[in-house]
Amino acid sequence: MSTDATRPAESGGAATPGGRTEFTTTFAKGAAVLMLVAGACGVLTGLASIAQDEIVVRTPQYTYALDLSTWGWIHLVLAVLLGAAGAGVLWGASWARALGITAAALNIVAHFAFLPHFPVWGLMLIALNVIVIWALVPYRTERA
Fold this sequence. Notes:
This protein is mainly α.
């Protein structure tokens, strides 16, 4: 009679120290593409806000009342960080994971504060950034 305790442990599982599965790698590469998409969306949001385009709704009495141009520059900087992290994860750079998690977390905060200007857009990008963080946390790059 064979038991699970007598079988050798499988290597590469998500629970093993330093282990990585194909799913984790694929999910992280998908998150990298999502970061590039979020970066492109952030560039569009930032440029529209900096130009004070008619697309952006101006709210009169808002708790986080910053100038619309300030919000545009915040989104533009975060978009560049997300794009760089997305490209880094696709290339397998070790720094990209930490940058991606940090930039996605900051992007969540920025879009939460920007919700009165773009409510549906902001909620979609918050959800996208949560997926990015969820995918990047277990991901480890291969050691040479």
